[in-house]
Write a structure and sequence with these properties.
Elements lengths: L18 H9 L8 H4 L7 H9 L3 H11 L3 H7 L6 H4 L11 H14 L15 E5 L3 H12 L3 E5 L8 H4 L8 H12 L4 E3 L6 H11 L2 E4 L5 E2 L12 E3 H10 L9 E5 L3 H12 L4 E6 L10 H9 L4 E3 L1 E8 L5 E8 L5 E5 L2 E4 L3 E2 L13 E3 L2 H4 L4 H19 L6
Parallel strand pairs: 1-2, 1-4, 2-3, 4-15, 6-13, 7-8, 7-13, 8-9
Antiparallel strand pairs: 5-14, 10-11, 11-12
The chain binds flavin-adenine dinucleotide (FAD) and iron/sulfur cluster.
Iron/sulfur cluster binds next to α2 and α3.
Organism: Peptostreptococcus porci
Protein name: dihydrouracil dehydrogenase (NAD(+))
EC number: 1.3.1.1
Length: 410
Amino acid sequence: MSFVDKIKYGEKAEQDFNIRTAMEEATRCLLCEDAPCSKGCPAGTNPGKFIRSIRLRNFKGAAETIRENNILGGCCSLVCPYGNLCEKECARCGIDEPIKIGKLQKFAIDHEKESGMKILKAPEKKIGKKVACIGSGPASLACATELALAGIDVTIFEQFDQPGGVLTYGITPSRLPQEVIDHDIQQVKDLGIEFKMNTRIDGKDGVEKLLKEFDSVFVGVGLWDASVPQIKGIDAKGVYTAQEFLKNARENNGNIELGNDILVIGGGDVAMDCASTSKQLGAKNVAIVYRRTIEEAPAYYEEIRYIQNMGVPMITRFAPEEILTDSDGKVEKMLFKSWDNVSELSMKADTVVFAIGQKASDDYANINLPDGVFANGDLVNGGLTVVQAVADGKKSALDIMNYLGVKEAK
Ligand SMILES: Cc1cc2nc3c(=O)[nH]c(=O)nc-3n(C[C@H](O)[C@H](O)[C@H](O)COP(=O)(O)OP(=O)(O)OC[C@H]3O[C@@H](n4cnc5c(N)ncnc54)[C@H](O)[C@@H]3O)c2cc1C
Ligand code: SF4
């Protein structure tokens, strides 16, 4: 049995650095003058600078650099695909292996928390402008932070009862514990930003209403509708979209009824998350079925490896054909057809999870935004990463300040 087999839902998969291991790792840093690692971060978190601080045992300075540049520094330290970003650019790649930038970032943010630092402060005097942010995911949180730091009154409107978007309702807690999300979001709340929860803003009509009360509006609603194939049996009990499944698991602290046989359909990171979550929830047999080849799967290589280490098979080149149910309308089996229409596959299933793509809700898809309204994050970029959403939110904050004729906070 491998190590990852033993992880239960909500248990942490990775050990954090302590002072000794963090110092050892920071000592490997070449202190490159041009810091290619820093150029690899879309949000400008500036690892070159914060690793230099850690190396000089200035943990406070390291935390300041991270928090000032990236309001979700804690979350990003755990969920960023570093291998494709900062660590890919690290000069040590050409020598042995890249500096573990994410783990050093987590170490600095832990120091911020443990020593009770309050790095960001909104100006006491407000400048008399009001902005509404729709959604409380990474894009809105980053946008709201920049605006609040410039003295703007910000209100966030969120449809669910907890803030964080995919951080809170999507990413599995073994990779992103709730206390890390809470600590990052507390930094946003401490800037005096108002959160209006359980408040859905309906597309263009809702945005126009907000514009009567606010000087500008940011739309960061992400992609919360799912693509599902219109096959026979799709409405059966026990069939979920990835969003429904992960949100349900998170809201119930992992206490959900799954059965023994779980099928996850898809080949992206979200499918991998659904499969690992099913395993951590105790399902005996979990399998992924994907319609293309492993090489074509959009999931990061590390994620596929992780899942394989858990003992989850990935069956490729089979597409969903039909869902068969018992007399209560509950899923019992699923049928697939091979890519060349020659072979058929029948698999037993107590739960089926479709993770084949997210899309914008109908009221935000192709929305024509009125003057003074700015959109960004997954809704605009089509669904990328947390750190990209932070970068997008920061960019929109600048656009909004420009629109309002407000200077950026120094
Ligand atoms: C399962 C899953 C796992 C992922 N894993 C990773 C990962 O490991 N690393 C990584 O970097 N990225 C990951 N991503 C991608 C990343 O989470 C997203 O790119 C990022 O969250 C996008 O941020 P956002 O603010 O644009 O949208 P979201 O995070 O989707 O936030 C949008 C918010 O708007 C709210 N909202 C929607 N409609 C309305 C409305 N009409 N009115 C009010 N509120 C509304 C939603 O409830 C939500 O809170 C993952 C995505 C998924 C789905
Ligand atoms: S590129 Fe790598 S070695 Fe150079 S400063 Fe950044 S982390 Fe250090």
